[in-house]
Structure formats: C-alpha cells, structure tokens
Amino acid sequence: MWPPLQNDCFLRACLRQPTEYTPLWLMRQAGRYLPEYKATRVKAGNSFMGLATNVEYATEVTLQPLDRFPLDAAILFSDILTVPDAMGLGLSFGAGEGPRFARPVRDEAAVAQLAVPDMDKLRYVFDAVTSIRRALITTDGEGRRVGRVPLIGFSGSPWTLACYMVEGAGSDDYRLVKTLLYSRPDLMHRILAVNAAAVTAYLNTQIEAGAQAVMIFDSWGGVLADGAFQRFSLDYTRRVVQGLQREKDGQRVPCIVFTKGGGPWLDEIASVGADVVGLDWTVNLGRARQLVGDRVALQGNLDPNVLFAPDEAVAREAVAVLDSFGRPQRPDGGWDGHVFNLGHGISQHTPPERVATLVEAVHSHSRALRSPV
Amino acid sequence: MWPPLQNDCFLRACLRQPTEYTPLWLMRQAGRYLPEYKATRVKAGNSFMGLATNVEYATEVTLQPLDRFPLDAAILFSDILTVPDAMGLGLSFGAGEGPRFARPVRDEAAVAQLAVPDMDKLRYVFDAVTSIRRALITTDGEGRRVGRVPLIGFSGSPWTLACYMVEGAGSDDYRLVKTLLYSRPDLMHRILAVNAAAVTAYLNTQIEAGAQAVMIFDSWGGVLADGAFQRFSLDYTRRVVQGLQREKDGQRVPCIVFTKGGGPWLDEIASVGADVVGLDWTVNLGRARQLVGDRVALQGNLDPNVLFAPDEAVAREAVAVLDSFGRPQRPDGGWDGHVFNLGHGISQHTPPERVATLVEAVHSHSRALRSPV
Question: Is ipTM > 0.90 here?
Fold first, then answer.
C-alpha cells in the first residue's frame, strides 16, 4: 500500500545499520519559530489544539519544516496531552499559558474512575498520521512514487502524563504528583498502569495508521529521585515498549525512548527494549556510546540555545556533537547508530536560518567522518 | 577566641573522619516553612533583603531551625545574589517575584565595567557571620562555653552568579546567558574570571569572620551542555576552591561544592579539590560513593517533596538514603563521609513536624547502621 522510502537514513541509523551520513530531525521542528507555522495557526483560530485536531492543518504544519530544510524525518504534529484529554480530564490551553486540565486526578475517587480511553476519541490523531504519511509521498527522478522521509509518531510516557494529570498543569516542583507518589504509591501505580495501557494502544494505533517509528517522551522522568525513577517511570515505559507492535509491512518500526535529565540512568534506560535512547545535552555522547552503544542507537544532543549563536558557532557545536559520538563504524566492521537532534524542543525564538546552517553542518561533517581515514 | 564545638559531627563527616551518627542539615533550613521565620520577616518590612542585610534579624532566623530541631550545622542566612548586587547591578525582590537586577550584564561595555566589588560593601554579610557564630555559643552541662554546631558560609558559583547577571532574573531556558556563552565566549570568560575572584574573596572573608565550612552553590551548572559545563562552570568553581583559605584557628575549613543536576559529571566535580560534593536526588548515593567516596565526602540527597508525605513515608525514605550510602566504615577500617541533606532547598509549604520526623529518623537509623553487625 505505502510506497518505498526515498530517504530511509533515519530508520537505518535507529537500527544501527550503515548510513552515508548522520540523519537529523529536530524535536518540535514544526513550530512557532517558522513564520509559515504561525500563519497556519492563525487560520486555526490561533489555537494549538485547533491545529492539532484538524487533519488538514496538522498535515500542513508537519510538512512545513521539510519544505525548508533537508531533514531526515517528519514527526506528527500533536501534543502529549491528547491521551489524558481523551480520558475526560478536560484539556485547555489558556492564552499565553501552558496546558491546563479542568479535572485533575488527585484523590482515590478520581483515580478509580480512570480508564483507558476509547481510541475512537483519538481518531483525529490517527487520521492526521495517515494524512501526513500520504502527503509525504512524492515522485522521484525516475517517476516512481516514494515516501520522502519516515514519519515518527509519539506519546508522552506514563509518568510524564501522570505529572500533568495530577498537577493539572505544568509545575515548578512537582509537589502534588510527588506528594501522591510518596503518600499513596498504590494510587500512583494505578494511574501509571492505566496510562501504560493507554499509551501502548495509542502508539500501536499510530503504527497501524502509518507511523514508521515511535518516540516516547519521558519529559519529566528526570525530576524523580533515584529509585523512584525506576519504579514510577521506567517500569511503565518498559511496559509500553514491550507492548508495541515492532513490525509493519515487513519493516521494523523503531522505538525511541527519551528521558529528559535521564543521564544518571542511561544504562537502565537502554535496557527497556527500545531501539534508540534520546539524550539531552548534559550527557557526553562518546561516553554514552561506550556504555550502551552496542545495545541501542543514540539520539541527540545539541543544546537548542546554540541556535542563537552565529553560524560559525552553530557549525562548530554541531561538529563537536558529531565528533563526540565519533565514526559510527566500529573497528569490528559493525555500525553504531547516531541520530542527530537537539536535547530538547527547538525554541520559538530560533532564527530559521540557523536551522539551515545546522542541517548543512551535520550532513557535511558526518559524511566527512565516514570517509576512509 | 572562639570556644570549642559541642557538636562537631558535621565537620568530621565532611573530613571523612569517624562519627557516631550521620549529621544532617537542610538547605534553606531557615525559611518560610517556619512560622517564626515569617514573624521575623514581618518585622523586617516583609522583605527578604531586609532580613539578610540586618545583622540582628539574620542572626535570629539562622538560629530558629536549630531551636526547633537537633540539626548538626547552622548556615548563614543570606542570598547568593549579594555579590552581583555589590558589583552595582541593582538587586531587588519584587512582591511575589524572584530576584531582579536593574542593570543586567549583556554587552561588551557592561562586561568591561565589571570588577571585584569592595568587600566593605558586603560588610553586612560578614557581620552577620560573626554575630551568628557568637549567638551559637552556649554553656554545656559542665558550665563550659561551647559552640553548639558549626556555622556554614556560602556563595553562588561563578557560573550561577553569571546566569543571574546576564539574564537579569531567573530564567526557564537560560537563553540570554547561553547566547552570550556561545556567541561571545571571550565575554563570558571575562565575567566568570571576575566572579571567581569575587567569590574567592567573599568566602575567605566569611571564613575570617567565623564561618567554619563554606559551600559553593552551582545551582545552574546542570543546565549546561557537557563540555560547556567543564569550561564555563567547573573550571571557575575550581579556581575558587583553589583560592580558599582552608585552615582557620588550627581547624580545617571544609569546602562543599554542589551542582544541581551535576550527576553526569560527578567524577570531574569530585576532582576540583573540595572536601565534600553535594548531590541531588537523581544520583544513586551508593554508586556515587563507589565512584568518588575515597576522594570526597558526599552530601545529600533526599527529594524535598518527600516531606509532604506522612511520617512513616518520611522515615522510610530517609532510611533508604542512608542505606544507599551504607555503613560509613570501610572494610579497611577507614571511614567515608556522608552528610545527610535534601537534594535542594526545603519547600516553603513543608509542615515543620515532618522535619522533626526526618531528623529523628536520620539520627536513629544512622546510629543503628554503625552498630557492630
């Protein structure tokens, strides 16, 4: 049904197969730093969820960065909070504010009512996945139908969703969710079990709809204490990974796990069964590769603030990240995998020209890294 | 001049000497979670700097937690931003807001004007140190004058001060300071060199005034990328540590370095020459001890949010931290050092009774840990 990929470099890097260069995509690559994104958002009533719930607009903004920059993957335009919204918690985005839930989950009664949502309530997400995958089809130089780049689906991790569900909004200190965790671990485990089942179904339905890789954003795993992280975040991420459909149409569907601030637990994160581990910029890529590079590919890890510096500095820092990982070919002839990315979402204040500089620097230096020495 | 200490358990743990139990103190132990602190603050015009700049009030609030709980150290009541304030940047605390500088340092001209401030402008801090040290003197059971517990002085690290100096206030993303760092590393290094000299003088003058240990808070070191952390934070922290007076009145003055989010760089942080390394709650204490426990004592690392849970949970989590470090006696007969603390400042919302539970749990379980097996 789906045509073959024109550029499958990203998928090969995820699976630790040979690549001619290091593929890159950027977290939040479809976003407010692009004027064309802002224009589409205005059409959608200047509302984030207006964009995310409209298949046409979600498709449009997903493709915008690919039309500007030769990125190696597309990522579904959506939000991690679609799942708790479908659970009935009442998501809204106030003007100039972050997300907010009308009905946060803070007591035994609210926890008892939680259930895996009917995936039909998330139909708009799956429809967007299929629509984007279709929109990525083009014709190559020889007139064949091809997919331009792979499409990544995603979800928040069970713990990260729980943070928002209990806090009801973003938080500085995660006081409410941690109070629940330490006071009533039984309730916390019940929320996480529901979330894990929901996230598994959500990602598998994205894969059915056309996602060629999936990423689990454990954005708030890094706020947990050692010990609590393993029990309340990683164990449930593992449950999701183990429940994922890993092959579709004869192709492996790589799974990426990214814990912001997860550096101290890299070894354990690399053992949950994902193909790729995302790293933030605090992690030394070379050391991470030594530790887990024979088990997983690594994704990351430029500080997005580098993109506020002049072009020379952007190129220099991109080269430093690539050099820290090193030549992906191992002395034994095998390959380790590196997918270049930022260590966090791109800032809305980023000048788009700097992204062009970054893409060029990553592609050209990584080709040079692979040339015979 | 100063009488001997009644309780020097904290100093011995810092220096990896035998102790009968694990000493503890809490970052921000003199603070808004205590009703008596709020009462003093009202007397000081409900102003943080009103408290910090008044020797009498600063002394009063420093001693308040010691009168409630058998803590093993006092820490000077002050703020890390006193140093840039003395540089002339114009510190203010808006109502309900964080700190703000009227004249942030963002361009070449502002950087050129920076200089190590005259320590006389910080006289109120040194006077507070001496006043607190005096107020800590009591009479023991046999009528001898003794110091109740050691007094810790402190400063922000050169990098952490620079964050505030460039941003002009707290920040979510450190965009301005990182833009400067990546665009004009020469200016950043100049700011940091001035800060390092200022912090060194500031801490040495605190030691002269009576501080028996000093702590460097690298609160924002953890936001830097690997590589940038070493060059822009750790190198300047090292410069401070190496410039410190380490002995006073025949006593070693221990130096504690705490980088929030510094877990990935523990080995390097342990090599700057400090006696103690502070750890946040993401770090596994047992593993940290294996890695660096033969070089430094460790301080930390309970998640302050544990103090919102019931007493049983507080005690259980305190025991887990102590057990993670393990018996401080090594099989070879030597001792490793552990100072119990939170991994961050105590929250203003903490019920004070939970602190009593914590202190009791740490003291009693750590005595039990030392008993012959």
Answer: yes
